[in-house]
């Protein structure tokens, strides 16, 4: 198989402030579903000005690592448990991001880009909320999409990432979103950058709930595989029952 369906490499817990469930509940769910590996991938954001925090504080991260180590000791004979981080890239905060990443040992460093800045404020590019979609739409859907891919490429080049998340989820709830030939060229550049750094592409099965297919679409996955980019699976679970969701559809 191109991808290991026994490893869920992307789950969140109540610590990120927009998911539910304790870390141990996710571990138990993974064992119950017959998984061999579970990697927590909690959110890190630096310098984001948004109406709510959808990421962990420094105190949250300390608790996260402590509990993760405890769970590794308790359940390590039944499940490989990884402690990872999903880094939301902010081009203005690279030194702060790198400094924070050096504070801990990570089993996975995922890269994503959630917050787009307009006039000093940030808007969530994967949100369905009108308060995000309207200002982003006014910027121009094609422009925001181009900026999204350019920012992801910069993140791939500058951060010590091991996995790229949410490749084609930008403006996923906006009716006008579409990828131009220029966007596809940007994606190809991202894949080339990933290959040079040995990064994997995440096949995110939450897409089956959002749009009836995984993120990214199969054509982009095929392009990545053709270039030698490895694949990893992630459910992007935000509650314990979502661990390993739709993994039966992986190939």
Please describe the structure with a list of short key phrases separated by commas or semicolons.
single chain; 251 residues; alpha/beta; TIM Barrel; 7-stranded parallel sheet; two-stranded antiparallel sheet; globular
CATH fold description: TIM Barrel
Morphology call: globular
Number of helices: 8
Structural class of the helix and strand makeup? alpha/beta
Question: How many whole angstroms does the radius of gyration measure?
Answer: 17 Å
CATH superfamily: Metal-dependent hydrolases
- What does the average pLDDT come to? 97
Strand order of the largest sheet: 1-2-3-4-7-8-9
Instruction: Name the helix and strand elements from N-terminus to C-terminus, one letter apiece.
Output: EHEHEHEEEHHEHEHHE
Low-confidence stretches: none
Distance between the termini: 6 Å
CATH architecture: Alpha-Beta Barrel
Determine the strand fraction and express it as a percent band.
Answer: 15-25%
Number of domains: 1
Indicate the percent of residues in helices: 25-40%
Oligomer: single chain
- The CATH class, by name, is Alpha Beta
The major beta sheet can be summarized as:
7 strands, parallel
How many β-strand runs? 9
């Amino acid at each position: 198989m191109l991808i290991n369906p026994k490893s869920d490499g992307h789950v969140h817990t109540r610590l990120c402030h927009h998911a539910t469930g304790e870390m141990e509940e996710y571990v138990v769910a993974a064992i119950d579903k017959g998984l061999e590996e579970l990697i927590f991938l909690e959110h890190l954001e630096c310098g984001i000005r948004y109406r709510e925090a959808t990421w962990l504080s420094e105190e949250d991260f300390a608790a996260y690592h402590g509990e993760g180590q405890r769970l590794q000791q308790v359940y390590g004979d039944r499940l490989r448990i990884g402690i990872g981080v999903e880094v939301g890239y902010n081009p203005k905060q690279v030194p702060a991001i790198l400094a924070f990443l050096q504070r801990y040992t990570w089993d996975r460093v995922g890269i994503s880009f959630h917050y787009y800045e307009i006039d000093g404020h940030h808007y969530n590019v994967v949100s369905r909320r009108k308060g995000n979609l309207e200002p982003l739409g006014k910027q121009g859907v094609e422009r925001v999409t181009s900026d999204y891919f350019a920012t992801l490429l910069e993140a791939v080049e500058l951060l010590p990432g091991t996995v790229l998340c949410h490749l084609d989820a930008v403006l996923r709830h906006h009716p006008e979103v579409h990828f131009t030939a220029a966007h596809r060229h940007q994606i190809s550049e991202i894949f080339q950058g990933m290959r040079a750094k040995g990064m994997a592409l995440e096949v995110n099965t939450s897409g089956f709930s959002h749009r009836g297919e995984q993120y990214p679409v199969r054509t982009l996955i095929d392009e990545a595989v053709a270039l030698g980019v490895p694949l990893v699976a992630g459910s992007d679970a935000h509650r314990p029952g979502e661990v390993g969701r739709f993994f039966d559809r992986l190939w």
